[in-house]
Amino acid sequence: MMEFALVFGRTNAAKFPAARQLVLSVPLLCNGKTVACDLAYRARSRLFVAVFRLACPEDPVILSRLRFWAARLGGRAGSLSALAERPRSVYHQLLARCELHRREIGPEHLGEALARVAAAVGAAPEKARPARPALVLAGSHQAWDGAVFEPELGRLFLPSPISPPQGDEIPLQVRGDAGGPLEAQARVFQVFGPGQRGPGSPAGFTLQLQSAPPELVEALTRLAPPRPGPRRAAPRYPVEAPVVVRPRVAEGRPVAHLEYAGERELANDYVSNLSQGGAFVRTPHPYPVGTELALEMRLPGGTLLQAPATVARVDAAGMGVRFQLDETGEEKLGEVIARISSRQRRALVVDDDALTRRLLADALAERGFEVFAASDGVTGLDVLTDELLALDMVVADLRMPKMDGEAFLRTVRGVGGEQDLTVVMMSGWLDPGIEARLHGEGADAVLDKALGPELIAQASDAALERKRLEQAG
C-alpha cells in the first residue's frame, strides 16, 4: 500500500482554498486508487496535513505528479511508505495530537471533513468539487521570463524546477493583463533537465495545446514569444553570494589594467541575481563589456561554481555576465536554482544564549531560511512538533538547561523518528570523544561555536545540502 502526506505550513483563510482543492483532487490524480485519508490541523502553527493511503505499491509517477501540484499550490508532498515502520508510526502519533484529527475518511466524505478544517482555519465553508487542478499562468513581464511559445506547433515551454510527469493531461488557464482567463487542455509533451535545451537553458517542461481557442494562441504569442529578444533566456533568482572575478589569462599573464586589489574581491563583490545562463555581479570595479573573465561563485548551500564568462553589460551597480558551464556545472546550478526557487527552507535554532540565538538566526535568514528559535531542548521539541514535516534543519547547542543537546538529539532521532531532518550540534567546549558520540547518535555535523554565526550558518547549510544529495543517491 502506498502512503503519502500533503503538508501545508502556515495555513490561513487565504491559503486554505488552494490546499482544499488539491486534497479534493487527489482521488483523480491517483487514478481512483485512494482508499482512505487522514486530516490533521494544528492551530498554534497553522499546520495542515492530509495523509492518503492508496491501493497500490509505491508509484513514482503519482508521487511526481503530487509533488508538482503541491509545489504549485503552496505545499509539499512526501512519501511515508519509504519510511521505516517506527518513524511512520511516530508521524501518525504526532498527527493524532493535533487539535483536529480525522482518520480513515473515504473519498466520498472528504468534502465534509474539509469543511471542519475550514472552520478551524477561519476560511469560508465553500463547496469545492473534485476536479483536476488547473495550471494557472497569470500576469506578464517577469512571470513569462524563459517561457517560449511555438504557435505553428501549439507548444509552450515553461521553465520550472519541478515538472509533472510526461504525458499528463492538464487543464490550462492563461490570464493576461486584463480580461477573464482563457482556457484549454494541454498534455505534457516533454520534460527537460537544466541545460538539455541548450547551454544555460533552464529545467522545465513543454505543453502540447489541444484545441486551443484563437484568443489563447494570440495571448501566448504576445506573452511568450518564440524568440525571447530582450527577455532573458532563463528566469533570474535573487541571491546574495560571494564571487571572485578575474580577467582571463592572455599570453600567460593577466591583463594588467584590469587587475583587482587582492582579497578585496571576495569581500566586496557578490552575485545579486542568478539565472541558468548568467548572473549580475555587484561590484565597484566592473570590467568593460566584452571582457573575458574567470568566475568563481560560492552559491547558497556551499556549491562552488567555476566557469569562463563574458561581460554582457555594465551599469553603476556592477556588471551582467554570461557564463558557460560544462555538464557537471549545469547539474550543480540546476540543483541550486531548484532549491532557491522552491519553498523557503526552514530552520530551528535551539540555544539558551539569547545573543547567540539572534546572531545565528540572522545569519541563517540571510541564507534564505525561515528561522524559528527556542531557548532549551524542551521548548525546541515543542516547536519541532508544531512544525511537523515542515522543518528542514535544526541547529542546537550542546549545553542547555532542562534538556541538554545530547538528550535533545536522542529524542529527535529516537523518540521522534526524525531521520530525514538535518541536525547540527554546536558547542563552545568539544570534549574528547564527543564528536564521535554525537555522530553515532545521529548528528549530521558537529561544530565549534568559535567559528562564529556566519561560518556556523554556512557549515549548517552545507550539511543540509550534503544530506539532501545523499538521500537522493
Describe the structure.
This protein has 473 residues and is α+β, with helices and mostly antiparallel strands. Helix content is 30%, strand content 30%. The protein is built from twelve helices and 22 strands. The chain has a six-stranded mixed beta sheet with strand order 6-9-10-11-8-7. A six-stranded antiparallel beta barrel has the order 12-13-14-17-16-15. Strands 4-1-3-2-5 form a five-stranded antiparallel beta sheet. β2 (34-42) and β3 form a beta hairpin. The protein starts with a strand and ends with a helix.
Share of β-strand residues: 25-35%
Tally of DSSP β-strands: 22
Identify the strand order in the major beta sheet.
Answer: 6-9-10-11-8-7
Could you name the CATH class of the largest domain? Alpha Beta
Instruction: Return Rg in Å.
Output: 24 Å
CA(first)-CA(last) distance: 24 Å
Q: Averaging pLDDT over every residue, what do you get?
A: 82
Looking at the overall shape, the CATH architecture of the largest domain is: 3-Layer(aba) Sandwich
Major pleated sheet: 6 strands, mixed
